[in-house]
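User: Before I run my own analysis I want an independent prediction to cross-check against. Here's the chain; please return only the structure tokens and, at the end, one sentence I can use as a sanity check.
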Amino acid sequence: MPKLDELVAPGRAAVLTMEMQRGVIGDLATIPALAGVINEQGVPARLGSLVESARRAEIPVMVNHLLKNPDHMLINEPSVDVIPELGPEPADFDSVRVHGMSPFTGTNLDPTLRSLGVETVIATGVSLNVGILGVVIEAINHGYHVVLVTDCVAGYPPEYAEAVLEHSLARITTQTTAEELQKLWS
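Assistant: Structure tokens:
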């Protein structure tokens, strides 16, 4: 297994933000408990700082949107907007999902990553219960290395999210923190 600095090097890695949308964890959240946990843990600000560091290091940022709930998460509705802490910036890549539990299903994510020469997916966002688990497993299934930024992910209840990190995702990902990545990219 390559070392962390090799896995996350510019030209080799991309940051994926999973469902960091106003209607999922922001001011229009439909799951207030999840929104409360992620905001209480400071994930939006920390992830915002991480994606800024990635952009400065010329590491692509892939913004994964969920458009699924016919009553709430609709194209061009404020609920699908990315939370302000993350931008997004014009150079970011959008991946829009209307079905499935992973941004690799029925989207342009995999071809975009391959065209950029990405070998490592840096997973961030929500939720550890389903979405992050899905992106990690599908990224591995597609042949990518996965680096999981443990302080830029969350789930509800927090105790269950910690158990997923420790007992499931630790076995199949390289885990790190936002601060460690930012040091490597500075």
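Sanity check: The beta strands are 13-18, 61-66, 93-97, 120-126, 145-154, 174-176.
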